Amino acid sequence: MISYSSGKIGYAQLLNTKFEDMIYYIAFIAYSYSCVFGFTTAESLVGLPISALIMSLQLFALCCLLLKILFQKMNGFSWLSFFLIVAIGFISWRCSGENYFLWLALFVLCGIGVDIEALARISLFVSVSAIIFVCALLNVGLVRDVLIYGTNGVRHSLGFVHPNTLARYLVVASISYLVSHYNGSIFANLAMALSCAFIAQMVTGSRTAVLLLVFQAILLVFFSRVHNFELKLAVLKVLFVGAFVLIIASFYFMFCYNIQVPLHNRLNFLLSDRLALAKLYAEVAPFTFFGRDFSSLGFYGLPSSFTVDNAWCHLFLREGIIPTVLLLAGVFVLIIHAILSNHIDGICLGLLLMVVYSCSETVGIMVDSNYFLIAMAPIVLGNHLTIGDSLFYPRGKCIGE
Questions:
Q1: Residue 331's closest CA among 309, 298, 304, 355?
Q2: Please, what is the angle between helix 163-180 and helix 207-225, to 10°?
Q3: What share of the chain is helix, strand, coil (3-state, %, to 5)?
């Protein structure tokens, strides 16, 4: 089962988990750090080319996941789903040259028994340590600070490949702190969110990250200070519906964006040309079932590398229709379940924030950041999904047994 413990889970308690769960968490750590290194400007580390270090971490993570799958109780349908989805992810990777969906599929399919709060604590540690470590590398000259000059001044990456990458880790750290410390001090949660927002504004200049972190702070104040549970539940359900509408709107603008429409033009300006780029890629490249590599489209005046930041448009254009349909179906079920569960917790708010964030940044399909998607495991493996007392699964009960 995938579980969510309403009590506090300390880092020391992670060491007391079952072996099969522990190797999953180790795989998540290894893959998360491989992503960190992949998004830095480092060319080598401890004498190893950065590409070799990333490959080593990913191979180690893959071995751990293969070991984890052997411990899962799966019937014939579950194994059929496993091999079918992995095959789709593998074909998409070979066609598109991008493996985000494949890694997401692997972590979801091996995710039975995983605790989302434990993943949040791990993600919090990885995000904070990544920022500190990369800043240390910058201080000794092993990475370079990428500077971008925008309307809001100079934006710094502090060693990452783009200022938005640093902003991403600030967002993930803040959301992970919310999930893992939801029942803790409201002041500590607010301090975390607003501190990350301040750094994102002053250093990275990422408007999306700042707005999301401020939105998180507003949610924290509302859900901690309003005592009418029915009102809070109604607001949460409306927000989830709104988040799904944003996903639908992403596809609408990818197909129907028109620079002549003032509203479209204004939204495109606010989103730093994200709408125009998605529309342009959709026009010049035929839609595919398993994605394609866009490196040959430079003569169309497009960027030298594929640039569609909206996670859902990115998935559709780069990794294909079939992976998009599968992931959208899983996310839709998670949102419906969150709406019907009549429960409010840190995972509810974290899932909501990440779905909203994914409509502007690619992290929505990257499992190291959007680990909430791992909760789809019982769905894709054909297990029964029960509406319980806490989001996703009732504590102490197995799903699909």
A1: 355
A2: 10
A3: 65, 5, 30
Q: What is the number of residues in the chain?
A: 401
State the DSSP H helix or E strand holding residue 48, giving kind and residue range, or none if neither: strand 48-49
Closest CA to 358 of 238, 208, 255, 241: 208
Sign of the CA dihedral with 179 first, then 239, 274, and 208 last: negative
| pTM assigned to the model | 0.91
The predicted-structure confidence for 310-365, as pLDDT tens digits, reads as follows: 999 999 999 999 999 999 999 998 999 888 888 889 999 999 999 999 999 999 99
Q: What is the pLDDT of residues 223-256, one digit of tens each?
A: 999 999 999 999 999 999 999 999 999 999 999 9
Q: What is the sign, positive or negative, of the torsion defined by CA atoms of 118, 119, 124, 125? A: positive
**First CA to last CA distance, the chain:** 9
- Distance CA(130)–CA(200), nearest Å, equals 15
**Residues whose CB is less than 8 angstroms from the CB of residue 267 and which lie 6 or more positions away in sequence, other chains included:** 253, 275
